[in-house]
UniProtKB/TrEMBL annotation, chains A, B:
Negative regulator of class I heat shock genes (grpE-dnaK-dnaJ and groELS operons). Prevents heat-shock induction of these operons. InterPro entries: DeoR_HTH, GAF-like_dom_sf, HrcA, HrcA_C, WH-like_DNA-bd_sf, WH_DNA-bd_sf, WHTH_transcript_rep_HrcA_IDD. SUPFAM superfamilies: GAF domain-like (SSF55781), Winged helix' DNA-binding domain (SSF46785). Residues 16-62 form the HTH deoR-type domain. GO terms for biological process: negative regulation of DNA-templated transcription. Keywords: Repressor, Stress response, Transcription, Transcription regulation. Belongs to the HrcA family. It holds the Pfam family HrcA. The gene is hrcA. The lineage of its organism: Bacteria, Bacillati, Actinomycetota, Actinomycetes, Propionibacteriales. GO terms for molecular function: DNA binding; DNA-binding transcription factor activity. This is Heat-inducible transcription repressor HrcA. Residues 103-321 form the Heat-inducible transcription repressor HrcA C-terminal domain. It comes from Nocardioides marmoriginsengisoli.
Length: 339, 339
DNA sequence: CTTGGCACTCCAGTCGTGCGAGTGCCAAGT
DNA sequence: ACTTGGCACTCGCACGACTGGAGTGCCAAG
């Protein structure tokens, strides 16, 4: 039971500090939270918590603030993801309902997430890896160039300009289109790639080079990491919550947020159905060592296609953020499933 | 000649203040710039400049800083856009060369511009308004839904999911595709829209509703403002140059930068071949009253398709920014022309 | 019209000082 | 074995006074 109270104290410290952003002392603690004990008792517990490395004081004779380890403990053991209220659910659904476009869905999700959590939101575009090829369209741009447009089941569209070695005729283009679609349509892109690879061998000798280059471009477009790498960031204005001295705290974060490759690493390690929380220096990115990341996978039906989440100061409302991230991920998944 | 010196003083003040970010006094001024006169003389000139509203002092007994009006004067009369060095030109060309994709071009341009100017860069996607329709592709998604993909000469791709009232057959789809392309391909989108409008009347009574709804969706996709409205922002970390008190200065700017609609207004009023400079409160957006915008149109050949520019503190390096903006706009135009 | 001189202003940084929040420890109480 | 009130102690921080310096405006002389 003494253990229980210690944890209650930790929870209270975290909640208070998150709310006020100020180190919290024993006295204010017992005032605000109804722990049925005196400040002195709380002080003893605090000393113990400090020994365990869960809280720390910025300087002697200041209140305590949670350490990264303390937050970790809080998140792992002291928190249950609270469900969103019916009103919030309606708001989310309503906000995402109007989207008619993949871009639109992603865009709205970012905004929504940023607004709900009052933090920086990141949404990764649905990954190609697990989607199927709906259609491949080839359009002649000039005599030696064509545009390949790849339409995927997730609604994503990839495009490539391809230089071809021979002069393009309508017949050749038609043949190409037919064969490519026959081989690729309906397949998962990994399978489509192999199916396409066999194509050039099946056609007349004269057009083999053309087939080769086109197939290569289409395959490249399929497996292109750049497309997986697309992420959208929003709510950067919420970085204001970080407090002052911009240069040291916020600037590196903004820089990291522009490195989309970096963000993908951040989101990449999330598992599908669980909300992952990475606190402070736990993450792989130095520039974000003062921030926490709450993320989760999302996507149609069973397997996760992609990920979304929020980035904020370690001092953040974890339960709230986790709930919001989870809720948005679910709604986005539903919407993607429908279309 | 006294006028000449006054202007030289103004120029010197602007340059100094931009470089140091500190109010500049008469003494430091004569030291740094070789005006052949004494501080006292400069003081007289400064008093005159202040009367004219071109400079101001934050408080008595501090140096002077330029007012918005002063910057305006500086930009209009005291500055010639300096050409980029050969090395810089090569760097720009090299940076943009690798792009093979419209998205890529835009993305790289933003980065480049942000890096060159050390400020926030904004690039608007090429406008649809003046591009022509390359191809319209219709793909069946299910029995009553199809995906319309609109491929434009700029390389932009628009897509719409359309619900159709009748069951889709391959024949119907083929007919649709044929007719729509015949009407629209090669046309500017305004003309394509009218051409398409006539389509439903030319087909059999039974499929008219289908044609109507598909044509409507395609036309909507063409004229859709959302596509014109796409802008990409980069280099927000450079807002650190603003100095401190984040909340009051930087936060509203970040907020404004996320409102893409707002940014379009900002870019929208730029003329094609000239670099437009909007200083401080001259702009239409309150939140950006402490910033200046340097922008220009860009696009293939004669008519401007779109715009790009940078946003920074009024205290910015105008000649440098103008040069960079102009240079990048030119290179992007060239590249878009090629593809 | 320029220039040196001079009195004046006012910001910014420094140094003390006192207050208050918070702590740790101890002895007494339950 | 815990809890609790008391108490001395520690610092950070806000506040105020002070001062140095940069900068100004004005004036009279060149």
């Amino acid at each position: 039971m003494i253990e229980d109270r210690k944890l209650a104290v930790l929870r209270a410290i975290v909640e208070d500090y998150v709310a006020t952003q100020e180190p919290v002392g024993s006295k204010t603690l017992v005032e605000r939270h109804r722990l049925g004990v005196s400040p002195a008792t709380v002080r003893n517990d605090m000393a113990a918590l400090e020994d365990e490395g869960l809280i720390a004081q910025p300087h002697t004779s200041a209140g305590r603030i949670p350490t990264d380890k303390g937050y970790r403990f809080f998140v792992d053991r002291l928190t249950t993801v609270k469900a969103m209220s019916a009103a919030e659910k309606r708001a989310i659904a309503g906000f995402l309902e109007g989207a008619h476009d993949l871009d639109d869905v992603v865009q709205r999700s970012v905004r929504l997430l940023a607004q709900l959590t009052q933090q920086v939101a990141i949404v990764q575009y649905p990954t190609l890896a697990k989607s199927t090829v709906r259609h491949v369209e080839l359009v002649a741009l000039s005599t030696h160039r064509l545009l390949a447009v790849l339409i995927l089941s997730t609604g994503r569209v990839e495009q490539r300009v391809i230089e071809v070695p021979v002069e393009l005729t309508d017949d050749l283009l038609g043949d190409l289109r037919l064969r490519v679609n026959a081989a690729a349509a309906g397949e998962r892109i990994s399978e489509a790639a192999t199916a396409l690879g066999a194509l050039p061998e099946q056609v007349g000798h004269d057009v083999t080079p053309t087939f080769t280059v086109v197939v290569a471009a289409v395959v490249e477009a399929m497996s292109n990491h750049r497309s997986d790498e697309r992420v959208v960031v929003g709510g950067t204005a919420n970085l204001a919550r970080f407090g002052d001295n911009f240069d040291q705290t916020v600037k590196p974060i903004l820089e990291a947020l522009e490195e989309h490759v970096v963000l993908l690493k951040l989101l990449g390690e999330t598992s599908s159905d669980l909300v992952t929380v990475r606190i402070g220096a736990e993450g792989p990115i130095d520039q974000l060592s003062a921030t926490s990341v709450v993320a989760t996978g999302y996507g149609a039906s069973d397997d996760a296609l992609s990920a979304l989440g929020v980035v904020g100061p370690t001092r953040m409302d974890y339960p709230g953020s986790m709930a919001a991230v989870r809720a948005v991920a679910r709604y986005v998944s539903t919407i993607l499933d429908e279309s």
